Amino acid sequence: MSTITTTCGFAFVLAATLILQRAEARPIVYANSTTAMVDYTEDKMSEAQVFYAPKSFISFGLGHMEIEGGGSHPEHEVTYVRVNFLAKRWNMEAAQANVFAWGGIDSAHMTQIVSLTTPSPQSEHDHGEPPPPSEISYEQRIGASGWNAGGQIDFETRRIYSSFKTDYHNSSAFTHRVDTLQFGVAPYIHDTDDLATWFVVSATRYSGNASGSHEDDQLSFLLRFFKKRMWVEAGATTDGKLQARAMFSL
Amino acid sequence: MKRSICLGTILMLVSLTARADTIEMKVFGMVCGFCAQGIEANLRKNPAVTDVVVSLEKKLVIVETRAEESIDDAVLAKTIADAGYSLKGVSRTQRTMADYRAAIERSEK
């Protein structure tokens, strides 16, 4: 519990720092940039992150993720602080490749539905059939501290984009892992001030014991746009679920 | 007549020497608008810089500096590296930013 309090305290200080730094902020991966990201997959998970990059190879910040579970564990939440490193970048004449790694500490919460069967009270004067036992259900919120780690490799030109990302959260309450493989094609070549458009195919595997089923694969088709400091993508999974992401840099 | 020619020549020389310096940099790794944003932001922190143009197509970053102010190649290399990119060459020209913008626009068409 004290770890959670410490984590929340640290998160609060970090959030305050980020807000104060915003006036000086620049785009992501450059010194003094602040980036906000949101990620949503219908009936699966949603995540929001804010990172501040003091240098082009490091950023740190906060994130919050909500995972849809199943059965008696309908809700899972993780609030985390994280440090991201650009481990390696290759700058080629018309392409760029990167290796990122990250890690941090989690404050995880799980909502559990607990059902209790209790015998019904029997009156002293009641000599008939005993009444059936009654069932009481209530929600129990379980908290635990944990850690997170992950990484990404990507390769990008102005025409194609590919990446593989893995993100893992571990706590005594639950574990959750998301692996994402993406491939994108730009229908036209964009330059600095143009609106960039990408067609993206994304394959995602969710695993860990936070989901109702331990492994779940999703394939989605997305349309991505970005211009200047704003980046949005939206589409649907093959089973018709909405998927959307947005990123904004200051 | 001689006096006016002399005066004209002096004025022309003064205007040439006072003309802003333009620095042309070949930069590798620029593949998206975010790259350009970061490089431009880093360069504009330098008080000698008055204008920046980035062309992803030509892999060029063009910087205009204030008249009679310049920026060392080492400073330029560090600025580009700090933004996360690789500087491959620097040349100094007297082409104007308008020339560059027009050339970039032509190449996009």
Structure, explained:
The complex is a heterodimer of chains A (250) and B (109). With 250 residues, chain A is mainly β. Chain A has one domain (2-119, 134-249): monomeric porin ompg (Porin, Beta Barrel), CATH 2.40.160.40. Chain A is built from 1 helix and 12 strands. Chain A has one helix at residues 2-21; strands at residues 33-41, 45-55, 58-70, 73-91, 96-118, 134-156, 160-171, 175-185, 196-207, 215-227, 230-237, 242-249. Chain B is built from 4 helices and 4 strands. Chain B has helices at residues 2-17, 33-44, 73-83, 97-108, and strands at residues 22-28, 49-55, 60-65, 86-93. The longest helix of chain B has 16 residues, at 2-17.
Which characteristics define this entry?
heterodimer, A: 250 residues, Porin, disordered N terminus, B: 109 residues, alpha+beta, Alpha-Beta Plaits, four-stranded antiparallel sheet, 4 helices
> In the CATH hierarchy, what is the class of chain B?
Alpha Beta
- What is the residue-mean pLDDT of chain A, rounded to a whole number? 83
Give the number of DSSP strands of chain B: 4
Between the first and last Cα atoms of chain B, what is the distance in angstroms? Answer: 48 Å
Strand order across the largest sheet of chain B:
2-3-1-4
Low-confidence stretches of chain A: 1-28
- Give a quick account of the main beta sheet of chain B: strands, pairing sense, barrel closure: 4 strands, antiparallel
Q: In total, how many beta strands of chain A?
A: 12
CATH topology of chain B: Alpha-Beta Plaits
